[in-house]
Amino acid sequence: MKLCIALDMPSMQENLKLAKEVREHFSNEEIWLKVGLRSFVRDGRDFVRILQDLGFRIFLDLKIYDIPNTMLDCVYECHKLGVDMMTIHASCGKEAMRSIAKLLRKESSDMRVVAVSALTSFDEDGFREIYNTSIQHGVNSLANIVYESGIDGLVCSIDEVLLIKSISNTLFTVTPGIRLESSSDDQKRTANVKVAKKIGSDFIVVGRPIYNAIDKVGVIKQILNDMKL
Ligand code: C5P
């Protein structure tokens, strides 16, 4: 299991300060950085390149969802940017996902593409309101489509990791919604690091519990420690 830190802070300077602190205290192998919508819209490709120059592996989390041609063009640009992982929405469908998998094979790309299943901010009621089914059922259908399309894996909560792995052990799972203590923010399907490790998530994504902490490095150390247990 690897840790990915979400750089969602209000300024590039704050994100960069954290990235440099991480660089100083931990190895490249241990920690990836996630550039999401806020940072990318504000700081763009230049910010990604700065982080790459610091030696980080980058997860570009733009959660793209569009017609197949537009998605394909966007995935191609992410590949050219040299990011290591990116997100699409699984509900974009098989045609888009198949063409993305084909493009990445043609380009011999190492970039991993993971498809968002049910956002971790959904509880059962919120999910049902949109998809008219339970989270387990919805994720099961999406994960089957993702697998059949040849996409690398899914973004899900800890509660769906085993279900996804039961479809295929080769499906990669990325789990946000990691909390060190109980919280009342927008994330509804949460778990702590030890549970994530036990369940077998491949990648945990942690944002606010790290960047809102006074001792950010201390929190990261605690997470890495829990990952070893
Ligand atoms: O601050 P927090 O730990 O909740 O950050 C989680 C990060 O993971 C955020 O950047 C969010 O955009 C992202 N994410 C998520 N749920 C998904 C996909 C990505 O929370 N399904």
TrEMBL record:
Organism: Helicobacter trogontum
Keyword annotations: Decarboxylase, Lyase, Pyrimidine biosynthesis
Gene assigned in the entry: pyrF
Uppermost EC category: lyase
Domain of life: Bacteria
The protein's role, per its UniProt record: Catalyzes the decarboxylation of orotidine 5'-monophosphate (OMP) to uridine 5'-monophosphate (UMP).
Membrane spanning stretches: none
Family of the protein in this entry: Belongs to the OMP decarboxylase family.
Pathway: Pyrimidine metabolism; UMP biosynthesis via de novo pathway; UMP from orotate: step 2/2
Orotidine 5'-phosphate decarboxylase domain residues: 2-223
Catalysed transformations (reactions): orotidine 5'-phosphate + H(+) = UMP + CO2
EC number annotated for this UniProt entry: 4.1.1.23
This protein's name: Orotidine 5'-phosphate decarboxylase
Alphabetized NCBIfam families for the sequence: PRK00230.1 (NF001273), pyrF (TIGR01740)
Entry keyword Lyase: yes
